[in-house]
Amino acid sequence: MPHSTSGVPAPANRPRVRRRTARLLVVDEADRVLLFRDSDLGLNPVPHWWMTPGGGVDPGESDLEAAVRELHEETGLAVDAGALFGPVATRRVVHGYSDVIVDQDEVFFGVRTTGFAPDSSGYTEEEAACIVATEWLTRDDVTAASEPVWPAELVMLWDHWEAMTGDPGLAGLALPDTEESTVPSEGPQPA
User: Fold this and answer.
1) Where do the record's region annotations for Disordered lie (predicted)?
2) What 3-state DSSP class applies to 104?
3) pLDDT tens sequence across 45-95
4) pLDDT on residue 188
5) CA 99, CA 180: separation in Å to the nearest integer?
6) In this structure, which of 31, 49, 143, 155 has its CB flanked by the most CB atoms within 10 Å?
7) What are the distances in angstroms from CA 13 to CA 77, 86, 92?
8) 144: how many CB neighbours lie within 10 A of its CB?
């Protein structure tokens, strides 16, 4: 069912922000990845998509430090920076939502853990309102998902991370610029 965008400002009239983020592929011993089911509450019906944990890099913080902090805030899992692998990939993505357009430079890290029940007590107010579920999904689950998975290349990143662990000389992926939106933007803006 299409989403009504009536009342949603045109791209030129929505605020546009630029940020750098650290994102995580959190994989458990059953080879499942932890994903959040997110939503855009400004649309009717409300669209949903699956995304990896992660968030903005604070001023003065490294990508790795942000990944460790975001992992703890969004899942309750506390790890040392040495537990993270990567960067597995980087990309520039535009996320157009009903209320904002976000130009985002993303750095992906991987972390292996035992399965756990994520703790959402560290969510921001916006995350608490928009994230409606957390699930551990297999590669087959991700591939068969009926809702979008962001990044769309998640299984490829997961496979590349595993290849990197066996080949220390293998570099992280530089993914092409892309757009993943609930309400399209006008494309990437100059950096």
Assistant:
1) 169-191
2) strand
3) 999 999 999 999 999 999 999 999 999 999 999 999 999 999 999 999 999
4) 55
5) 15
6) 49
7) 38, 37, 22
8) 9
Domain that holds residue 35: 15-179
What is residue 130's DSSP assignment? H
- Backbone phi and psi for residue 74, each to the nearest 5 degrees, phi listed first: -90, -20
Contact, 14 vs 103, CB < 8 A? no
Peptide bond into 45 cis (omega under 30): yes
Identify whether the C-beta of residue 41 lies closer than 8 Å to the C-beta of residue 129: yes
Please give the model's pTM, rounded to 2 decimal places.
0.93
Question: Is 32 inside any structural domain?
Answer: yes
Domain membership of residue 8 (yes or no) is no
Rounded Cα–Cα distance for residues 152 and 13 (Å): 27
For all residues of the chain together, what is the average pLDDT? 94
Pair 147, 48: CB distance under 8 Å: yes
